[in-house]
Amino acid sequence: MNVNIDPSWKTRLQPEFEKPYFQQLANFVKQEYRSHTCYPKGKDIFAAFDHCPFHETKVVIIGQDPYHGPNQANGLCFSVKDGVPHPPSLVNIFKEIKVDVGVPYPKSGNLERWADQGVLLLNAVLTVRAHQAGSHQNKGWETFTDAVIQSISEHLEGVVFLLWGGFAKKKSRLIDQRKHHILTSGHPSPLSANRGLWFGNQHFSKTNELLERMGKEKINW
């Protein structure tokens, strides 16, 4: 796997690419993509970084692993390609945005428009085998993406981290809360949302309030 990633991140993460675990991970991913259908496409594995350069990162949203259905995953957590039906979690995200900040429910579920404004849409695991959720977990991706979160925490200031659900909340241990802001809630999946743990969290307006207070440009959700 050639690590073709935005130069601002490459400089920052080069030590990770040289570690033994990453070499093993790269070999595993290459083999999987050769032998099976995997998502996202190879060129999109690092898309979250390519759309959101390191020093422009203002907000981080953490997902678990990519969508595993055809044509869904585009390298950004919760995001799907243009023209693809919106998965249930994304539907609930857009519903909350509509109520919270008044942005109409969008036609496209492609969140590149957020990433281009400084929202890093980071899955903990960046690849998956088709129709097998979690199939690339515990192969090294989590070590890599934890290093990403730690690097942001260490070298940037005033980043807003949105941690949705138990899995994402565990990442708070990697974040210096004296320098950054953490907003937590239930996951937008129907299971959690229907139990009243997602709707009404107002994370989108709260994020913009925090950014504005720090003199940063708000996100157009």
Question: Can you describe what's shown?
Answer:
The chain is α/β, with parallel strands linked by helices and about 220 residues long. It has a single domain (about 5-215), classed as Uracil-DNA Glycosylase, subunit E (3-Layer(aba) Sandwich), CATH 3.40.470. Helix content is about 40%, strand content about 10%. The chain has nine helices and six strands; from the N terminus they run ααβαβααββαβαβαα. The strands form two sheets. The chain has a four-stranded parallel sheet with strand order 3-2-5-6. Strands 1-4 form a two-stranded antiparallel sheet. The relative contact order is 0.17. The model has no long low-confidence stretch (mean pLDDT about 95).
CATH superfamily: Uracil-DNA glycosylase-like domain
Q: What is the CATH class?
A: Alpha Beta
Largest sheet properties:
4 strands, parallel
Which architecture per CATH? 3-Layer(aba) Sandwich
How many angstroms separate the termini? 33 Å
User: What fraction of the residues are assigned to beta strands by DSSP?
Assistant: 5-15%
* Cα-atom radius of gyration: 17 Å
- Provide the CATH topology: Uracil-DNA Glycosylase, subunit E
**Shape, principal axes of CA atoms:** globular
Specify the helix fraction band: 25-40%
Q: Can you list the strand order of the major beta sheet?
A: 3-2-5-6
Poorly predicted regions are none
Number of strands: 6
Structural class: alpha/beta
Please write the string of helix (H) and strand (E) elements.
Answer: HHEHEHHEEHEHEHH
Number of domains: 1
Q: Mean pLDDT score, rounded? A: 96
The helix count comes to: 9
Function: Excises uracil residues from the DNA which can arise as a result of misincorporation of dUMP residues by DNA polymerase or due to deamination of cytosine.
Catalytic activity: Hydrolyzes single-stranded DNA or mismatched double-stranded DNA and polynucleotides, releasing free uracil
Enzyme class: hydrolase
Subcellular location: Cytoplasm
